[in-house]
Amino acid sequence: MNFLDHMPIWPILIPMIGGLLMLLPPFAGIERYQSRRYFAAILVVLQLVCGMFLLNSVISSENLLYAVGNWQPPFGIILYVDPLAALLVCLTSFLGIGVVLYSFSGEDRAGRYYHPLIQFQILGINGAFLTNDLFNLFVFFEVLLIASYSLLIHAGAKQKTEAAVHYVILNLIGSSIFLFALGTMYGAVGSLNIADIAMKLPSLSDSDTLLANIAGALLLVVFGLKSAMLPLHFWLPKTYSAASAPIAALFAIMTKVGIYCIFRVYTIIYGEFAGSLSDFVIPIIWPLALASIVAGTVGVIVSPTLRGMTGNLVVVSVGTLLLGFALRTPEASGAAFYYLIHSTLASAALFLLAEMIGQQRGKALDRFVISRKLKNQTFLGFCFFVAAMMAAGLPPFSGFLGKLVILQSAVTTQEKIWVYSALLISSLVTIIAFSRAGTTLFWRHAGNKDVSDSPDLTSWQKVGVLILLAAGPLLALGGEHMLALTGVAANELHNVNALIELMGLRGEQ
Amino acid sequence: MSLFLIVALLLIGVLVPIYTERFGRKINTFATMLAPGIAFAYIISLIDNIFAGEHIIEYLQWIPSVGLTLSLHLDGLALMFALLILGIGLLVIFYANYYLSDKEDAGRFYAYLILFMTAMLSIVLSNNVLQMWMAWEVTSISSFLLISFWGHKSESRKGARMALTVTGAGGLALLAGLLLIGDIVGSYELSVILGSGETIINHALYPVVLTLVLLGAFTKSAQFPFHFWLPHAMAAPTPVSAYLHSATMVKAGIFLMARFYPVLAGTEMWFLIVTTAGLMTLLLGAYVALFKHDLKGLLAYSTISHLGLITLLLGLDTRLAAVAALFHIMNHAVFKASLFMAAGIIDHESGSRDMRKLNGLWQFMPYTATLAMVAAASMAGVPLFNGFLSKEMFLAETLHQHAFGFLSWMIPVLATLAGVFSVAYSLRFIHDVFFNGEPVDLPKTPHEPPRFMKLPIEVLVVICILVGLFPVMMIGDFLAVASKAVLRTTDLPYYSLSIWHGFNLPLMMSGIAILGGIIVYAYRSKLYRFQSQFMQTDAKLIFEGVVQTVISRLSQAHERFDTGSLQRYVAAMLVFTIALIGLPLFEFDVGFEPVNMQDVSGIEISLGVIMCLSAIATMIFHRQRLVALIAISVVGLVLSIAFARFSAPDLALTQLAVEVATVILLMLALFFLPKKTASESAPSRVVRDLGIAAAFGGLVATINYIFITQPLASISEFYLANSKTGGGGTNAVNVILVDFRGLDTLGEILVLGIAALGIFKMLARIRLAMPSSDEKGRPWSTDRYPPIVSMVSQALLPLALLVSFYIFLRGHNMPGGGFIAGLITAVAMIQQYIAHGVEWIKPRVKVDYQNLIGLGVLIAAFTGVASWGFGYPFMTTWFDYFDIPFIGEIELASALVFDLGVYLTVVGATLMILAHLGKLSTPERPKVEA
After folding, report:
1. Distance between CA atoms of B667 and B626, rounded to whole angstroms?
2. CA of B576: how far to CAs of A37, A163, B185, B565, in Å?
3. Residue B1's pLDDT band (boundaries 50, 70, 90)?
4. How far apart are CA A279 and CA B344, in angstroms?
5. Does the record's keyword annotation contain Membrane (chain A) (predicted)?
6. Cis peptide before A74 (omega within 30 of 0)
């Protein structure tokens, strides 16, 4: 194997080795923060390059397998790169660039191990996207969770600790349930390789089918908790609004890990070839997706802060993605992936903006109350406006296109009345909420107070937020290419047989 | 040049005012007018082509896969609207130059205005309905920015939000409607859709489509019952009102109805909905306008009324009515824009818009007054002005209606009634303001405005008169091509644009309207008195109130739903899990054959009982934390015995070591926590939680039972068979850990390392109160480090290290390995901390645990990378056997290096956690970084 053949594992190794090196001399130490910054920036850019390489490679030829330890499927851990995984690795790295650059404004010095932890967080996320092994997925979940626990309390305060306690305890229960699920799955199918399970599932005995059903149900709890699906969403708005802005922005991709796993597991294992278990989660997901949209939308309109509002927008986007999943066509999946990319970047940008706005409003922070005038009114106003248009799904930015393709993919279905009502009404409420938020944040001033003592925005903050916001117009302008890409990703995902063939598992039977 | 360049030019034009603002107001204004000016000229140059029956269509691909092409076209209807939008737009910009005060941010204002103009123009030029919808939404957003231009005023913000909410809601309904149309027709191209009228009307979803599209149109055009936002949009600067409420924003809804007239109109449903809404709006607007004391308020309701008139015409069941509608669109745009501008001048030069104060302005501004009078006469439908012509056509059309059955006579009667009020409020606008006594308490002495501020009004008024006098020459062709586009025909029904049609019914109705209007105005004070008995309502306050109420209700509901209680979150999660796994179990009714069970010995039973009892004891004593900790440690110990009993020595060893480390860790943490906690759970909660716990435990036990009693076919056999030959070790557990699933182990030691970092990060932030006594008030002993313990521990250390070394080495073939060895070393070191204290250890053990962690995981990772050098994937292991003199055959394996990494990480992480927790009570406590 030559150098480039190892590419599938690079998105895992780069942040791992990079993060570890930052714990050691010459990068370790309080005074060495500058060198850590350079290094962290290089790392995220390298990851993006890697991701692009993988994406290009799987688009132009076939999907990649990487047998860790040279143990072939179904025995070893297999990394599997398809367009979906590669696309999401790219998304994570892109988000990482924005987050890392933003935090150079000083956030990275407000507590220890900031940059290594960010790298470990990315490592866990990338690993979860790339692995084709359920237990390995558990391990990467643990990595991303433990890193997120530590990042959540970064630059700690009372409210962070409270949110962290909720988050940690719920996720510990989630991890236990994950283990139950894995044990049950292994007990039923005797394998952990996703493709292998998918292949063996239809021919299981009755009792093993029952176990596989239970395992699938338990996994739904795990992934649902990760993705903040109702009724497992309670932790999200609190956690995300407690975290420091760049960390909340990075967390924006974490719910998408849950969504990704739902797409992966319930398309490949419990998809159309799963015999009696085929699509058994769909009747469960439908009402929960709608309920997530409703709960998130209510949360959006009642939130007293911009961060809380953004957190609830994440819940709405989760519901929207679940609708895209529940439609169960490659078209709908492709639409959902486009929306996933868009909503991740839009909510990340909003988290960053909330902090930037809050910094200039004294004690009012990002609460929707009358306060002083913003020092960088024009810049922040412009950014907020673009971000709000993206998040509310208004043209001409990516949010509109994302919503449009999901609506289009639903137009021929029986359930369209639900999809349409949910998405359009939540859009309207979001517009109302943003118009209230924006007019209050930017126009309701208490007198003409002197704002010269408000802190200035740093250029790193501006760079970070602009990188993420650029996605709005760019994803719309290059909509055709992006949709083609997500379309390919969806088709590859739904092509379960090709995966089993690629793994070389068919001959075993 | 092409239509695309026009739109692109205007988009660039959005930036022009922002960058030319620094050169002063005049240059700023003229630079801003450049782009729309060129666009206007270009459209004019195309007039002949359109008159010749040409239909210009241009395409650009954008996102063809979703049907979103950029596709522009210019037909008669688009031409008419484009000229109105650009022409009046130019006049408005010119006017705003004088209207805005020097302090105001004209650059931003112009930028919003041009953005709005671009969007509006894109609506009328769009040949793709999705693209049209995008432009539609952009008009909503940019009008929000324009209305809230004076954002520091509460009424501006509220008015803007209201407009955005109502038009935004309509916009979303429209989107749904357009998507359905696209699905029915199979294309989003307007040219295709307009040819598919039959398909749409006969489709089962036609009522839904029509409702959704009309929702879009009615909200935008302020039709009853969505009219309430329009008067509050008057909080905008007057040039904005002049633009939005004459030629653009509100006309977008009308345009939509006209555009879709060929495919949606002509059914009973269309007729009923559109006519009724139009009629209601017409009457309501005309009536309310009379009672508005605010100049702009009067004009706002008059706008609503005229929009109703046009809607009514579009709803009427004759083709001529559509022609009349188009005619009135033009006329209304012209006279209403000039009236708003006149109102702006009056406001600007007198400081008030209140008609109770504004009286007798004729003596101060006769010239403006004359202009306003002409425009108002046109609005009232006085002969010789343009408004008269279209109103005549309107009245004539109302006479030919049959669709209300025997009640069809109501349409002309109500139309005449509306005409009466229309004349009355026009009279009021003129008479109250310019005559009717002397001004009352005006903030300024009124005077004529700057010379050129009147220019736009003059232009418009001249058009009013010219069209009124020479209709055919002025607009005959425009009307003809627009009508052809709307009716989709080349041969139009006969209509006459002449001023004089002889003495006929419509003329009489006009006469009645004028006379009636004069009478109503003469007796207006009686009407005001009558009207004053009604409660004054402000739609803005009502709307805001409703929104507030809804939000606070939702807030309450949301608080009940999400109480912020972790216990509830956990309960929700568990109940959800129970439901999900309970359902398949409940439904499973296939015969079930358990495999044969092993015999159970007495020891196993008693251990099981002990385990259960300790678990229960943990629950019972969980408020006395130390007792609970002891109880739960028993569970862990029994578990390790169980592992040993059932042939899992590695797990037993690991469990044992982990158990020791965890208990010490928890004891350290307990020192800082209250020793007891108060009982807080209500009895009902206890019952609920017990229920959930029992159900969950029961289900998990059932699942366990199922899979331990079922034969298992798995890939495990492969690992047993290959562990020696493929992994070079006879201990399959260890080979799985370091080889088969080495990546998992790498991940898990990283988790351990991160956990240590995270705990350190957290501890560095925490300022804990140091308890000096236990819960009964007994002070903690100050005796430190009993000598016997110190000496024994010191003596034990080398022994413990030796054991861990041995365990480490033999791991690959016998129970043991890096993980267990690491834990043993860590426990031995902790023993030293306990026996000697942090201060004693610090100078003696100079290992930086952070380095240890970093190094450990790196070693493990690089062991994996090393296999690249041999052309194998990450973590491919290598082993071989060597014969060494005196020692004998030994095995060297890359897995050993990996295991060393594991060992170092485990030692580093465990000690980092424990040592730092221990240090919290000493001066060596961790410090925050920055």
Report:
1. 8
2. 43, 22, 44, 17
3. low
4. 64
5. yes
6. yes
Record the pTM.
Answer: 0.93
Secondary structure of residue B769 in the 3-state scheme: coil
Tell me the C-alpha distance between B571 and B333, whole Å: 62
Reading phi first (left if > 0) and then psi (alpha if -120 to 50, else beta), residue A2 is in: beta
Buried b (16+ CB within 10 A) or exposed e, A104-142: bbebbbbbbbbbbbbbbbbbbbbbbbbbbbbbbbbbbbb
Say if B582 is an interface residue toward chain A (CB within 8 Å): no
Q: What is the pLDDT of residue B613?
A: 94
- Measured between CB atoms, does B161 come within 8 Å of chain A? yes
Taking alpha carbons only, the member of A367, A354, A331 closest to residue A483 is A331
Contact check, Cβ <8 Å, B566/A127: no
Pairing of strands A64-67, A78-81: antiparallel
- In the stretch 782-841 of chain B, residues with CB closer than 8 A to chain A read none
- Measure CB to CB from residue A66 to each of B585, B873, B877 and give the nearest one: B873
Test the B interface: residue of A204, A221, A282, A284 with most B CBs within 10 Å: A221
Tokens matching residue A386? 């673009």
Q: Which helix (H) or strand (E) holds B70?
A: strand B68-74
**What integer pLDDT is reported at residue B754 of this predicted model?**
94
Domain ranges (residues) in chain A: 287-477
Q: Which residue type sits at A105? A: S
Q: Which residues contact A232 (CB under 8 A, 6 or more apart)?
A: A170, A221, A224, A225, B572, B573, B576
**Bridge partners of residue B779, in order along the sequence:** B773
List, as one string, the DSSP characters of A8-55.
GGHHHHHHHHHHHHTTSTTT-SGGGHHHHHHHHHHHHHHHHHHHHHHH
From the list A395, A71, A278, the residue with the least C-alpha distance to B142 is A395
Q: Which of residues 25-84 of B touch A (CB under 8 A)?
A: 61-68
Q: How far apart are CA A53 and CA A89, in angstroms?
A: 11
- Nearest CA-CA partner of B791 in B763, B752, B832: B832
Task: List for chain B the helix, strand, coil content (%; round to 5).
Answer: 70, 5, 25
Q: Which residues contact B179 (CB under 8 A, 6 or more apart)?
A: A404, A407, A408, A411
Compute the average pLDDT of residues B651-660: 88
Distance CA(B81)–CA(B64), nearest Å, equals 27
Q: Give chain A positions within 8 Å (CB) of B141.
A: 389, 394
CB within 8 Å: B707 and A184: yes
- pLDDT, one tens digit per residue, over A122-171 is 999 999 999 999 999 999 999 999 999 999 988 876 778 888 889 999 99
Query: Cβ atoms within 10 A of the Cβ of B870, count?
Result: 10
d(CA A315, CA B562): 14
Q: What is the dihedral of CA A409, A415, A417, A419, to 10 degrees?
A: -50
User: Terminus-to-terminus CA distance in chain A, angstroms?
Assistant: 29
